[in-house]
Write a structure and sequence with these properties.
A six-stranded antiparallel β-sheet has the order 1-23-20-19-17-4, with helices on one face. Strand 21 (432-438) and strand 22 (441-447) form a beta hairpin. It is built from nine helices and 25 strands. It has 470 residues and is an alpha/beta fold.
Amino acid sequence: MTDIQFYATTEDDPWFTPEEPVSIEEMTAFPGAFIRLDQPAQEVEGFGACFNELGWVALSRLSQEERSEVLRQIFAPGAGANLSVCRMPVGANDFAVDWYSYDEVDGDYALEHFSIEHDEATLVPYIRAALAHRPDLRLWASPWGPPSWFKRNKHYACAAPNPMSEQTRFDNGLDPDNQIEEGTDGLVLTDEVLDAYARYFGAFIDAYRERGIDISMVMPQNEFNSAQIYPACTWTPEGLVKFLRRLIPEMERRGVDVFFGTMERPDDSMVEKVLADPQVGPKIGGVGFQWDGKRAVPFIHHAHPGLRIYQTEQECGDGRNDWRYARYAWTMMRHYFTNGASVYDYWNLALDEGGVSRWGWSQNSLVVVDPDAGTARLSYEYHVLRHLSGFVQPGARFVPSLSYTGYENLLAFHNPDGSVVVAAQNDMTTPQRIVVGIGRKNVSFTAPADSIVTVVVPAEEVEVAGKPLA
């Protein structure tokens, strides 16, 4: 019998093969869950993370050999997490070294001073280092904020720090009387600014292509409802439509897709207002959701079943990188894939221990670097993500399951090579025997107490109506 892959992650042991093997038998009794291979759902394009400046700062503390090995385990096919669809910022984001844009010369609508020279020290080498392990890596990009002089308050942020907050020590210099509120357009919506900002995106795409880095898709704004103390710009759906009417043609000339996002509020009507525009809606290639936007995903997927959905930023944790949050990460993956997601992107690929941003946020990461020792470790969330990303191939189809009580906590995928990936969480304090029906056979395995597990069943081991899946 062909070897079946079986891996588990627990708090005490982040990656191992359980001693009790997987068994496959003819289906003579009902399993706990049927994997519905006859009802394949959305195609899975891949998994990823985000290239942020502070990630490269952290990785630069490692020796060249260790850094290359870490990135190999993140990106190289078959080596580990197998990431293939990643995000990057357009200019500064909250995990940049500090605020910057590619053109801070007020009034330069011709973009004569546009330059990505700042990125040569961080984002460009970061992405090139990943491409060395994954030459077919796909990239998409979104801004956190435009050049400050494009905004109504002429400042990179929308909000001043709350004087009652711990983040007061990270003063951003914004006068509280000059804040921009959620539900308003932070950009100056004149033709001159809108046209220049669309060309700004185009110049960004061109500059990265000149450096051998191809960006295949953009979204117009990160979290357009959030007035933040770090780089941000609020928008209304109506304001975004005005901008998208200019951005889409600029991207079409370069063969770059445009998605709507990123959507961080549980209000599907905001998406519908953009999709309803006769000029913009038909050319939106998909929608990106993150944070509380996850609650709008089921409604958008139901209303637009053919629309591609990206999970654009896994909720970021608190810098502790503990098992508690890794268990929550599983629930996020389960929510998005069962509601139509085709891409699942983690947030910070790498950070120093504690994960503190320039503006005082502490967040988790896949790779955690000890800045004193110059060493790195892979976090729990790396392994939880790997339980899917390491085995679900680009082009796989998500497969729904029909489950009985106690067997609902699983995900299944049918790979292009015919193999079937089943991942499950046992959130109990005792081992759980799980039996799933795949084709005409029952696949049985025991998930250790409080664990995430993955079983990969080769195509030749499973038959549907007497015919191999492959």
